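Hi R.,

Here's the input for the flavin-adenine dinucleotide complex you asked about:
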Amino acid sequence: MGTEVIDVLVVGGGPAGLTLARALTAGHPGLSVTVLEGAGRVGGKARTEIRDGYTFEHGPSDYTRNPEMVRLIEDSGLGDRVEVAPLRSLTRMAIVRDGRLLPTPRSPLGALTTPLLSPAAKARMLLEPLFARRPGPEGDESVHDMAARHFGAEVADRVVRNMLLGTAACDARTTSVRALAPALWDFERDAGRAGLLAHAVRSALRRRGGDRMRAPDVMHLVPGGVAALWERLATDLDGRVVTGAPAVSLEVDEDRRYAVTVTDGTRYVARTVVLAVPAYTAAALVAGMAPRAAEILRGITYSGLRVFGLGYRDDELARFPDGIGFLVPRGEGARMFAVAAVSRIVAAHAPDGHVLLRVFMGGSEDPGVFDLTRDEAVEEIRRDLRRFTGMTAEPGFVAEASDRRAIPRYEVGHAARLEQAEAALLEYPGLFLAGNSYRSLGLTATVLRAARLAPVVAERARRAARSERRPGPRGPARSRRGPSGTQHGPSETRSE
Ligand SMILES: Cc1cc2nc3c(=O)[nH]c(=O)nc-3n(C[C@H](O)[C@H](O)[C@H](O)COP(=O)(O)OP(=O)(O)OC[C@H]3O[C@@H](n4cnc5c(N)ncnc54)[C@H](O)[C@@H]3O)c2cc1C
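And here is the predicted structure with flavin-adenine dinucleotide in place:
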């Protein structure tokens, strides 16, 4: 192995890897940190295309405002670029039902008056406290099943399934509620036999006079889009980020030092390694060391997405619905499943007098969307827009982000399988997993988790350095920490 031993080697220069590297260099300046990024640019899925006056986000476009994200942006000197919008503004979506656009319910009262649901479904919803007496399954269940158990199948099908598809590109019927929404999972357990509705009312009353719980705001970076943040972080990391360096192998020696080799043959030796790459890449890297962990990580599958940015003149959108856009349920005979007029949220993302639509196609139920050429896909979108809104104009701007493995699927049982993978990696205490394949689908939660992992990794790196200096036999290899920084135990693996 080479002579220089790095304290922390981060593999993956996406949001998770860069946040972690930033937290390490800022909070633990004595440690040496290197980031290996496989692509020619940093940022991973967070990529912004700026062209012809439009700003088209290939990946994350709206990210919730939490203190960690705000700190990251402000520390990077981009605080003056933040635009904030209430999350509620994003939910001003319509939904297609039998070819017609209907507003989505945005409140309990809205759910009772919406034409989207039958009178029987509304009655069933109100009877939730009675049905909630039936206990849910012990280990996990799908978001759809939980919704159906509480509010009835129609609400689960027509509201929950479509909202989850449209907002997170997830199939509610297979997505684990425990992994995707651990707070909801806990909330249901707290609610017990009272049911979600009664417990929500009770919790709201208890909070009266105290902090009111409100939906978070979402943030955008203007100008430059979200990519500006990761480019700035990489610049601030000052030579510690190596781009165009895809890791192809990972080995560990008898001194518990890790060696990562990249495609050009360069070998990096480190006391700790953080794999901030998608699960399938992590699986390939750990396969030789921990085959059981690799098998589980390989089992985390992804949904492919084709996201189009289409630019129009304002007057060409006269028949587009008010609000942000609309969701198209599967079964309506359309290829797209969501469309959002993103420049109604961030005006600067389209030139004056123009609108940028962001259209989503694909997902786990439509892998065939990748067989369409780009022109065919745009034609499908135009056909759908014509059918639902009457719009006939040809877009003056077209951009596409296509990713066959865009969004990790947290399928039912995901959390338990992850615990098994972490247990299988325990004999490598200097090896950590980070990123949105595991416990945080969205950008902000991924950032938060990566920042929280930093002190754990730093402590491990320092301990490894100390034990190298100490003569005599090494301490035990096992650590109580899981590879993603969590302590093991069923209640201790929650997402923040
Ligand atoms: C279309 C789309 C829309 C989204 N919209 C939103 C949104 O509106 N709001 C939101 O909060 N979140 C959104 N997300 C999710 C958000 O993008 C992720 O939460 C975030 O990108 C996860 O960051 P990450 O670092 O874990 O992974 P990634 O972004 O995937 O980064 C992983 C990095 O690892 C690198 N890498 C891979 N293999 C190797 C290797 N062998 N060696 C070295 N480097 C390697 C990759 O090149 C990449 O840079 C969206 C995602 C997609 C795809």
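One thing worth noting: The pocket of flavin-adenine dinucleotide is lined by residues 11-17, 36-39, 44-46, 59-63, 246-247, 276-278, 281, 305, 307, 403, 406-407, 435-436, 442-444, 446 (CB under 6 Å).

Cheers,
M.
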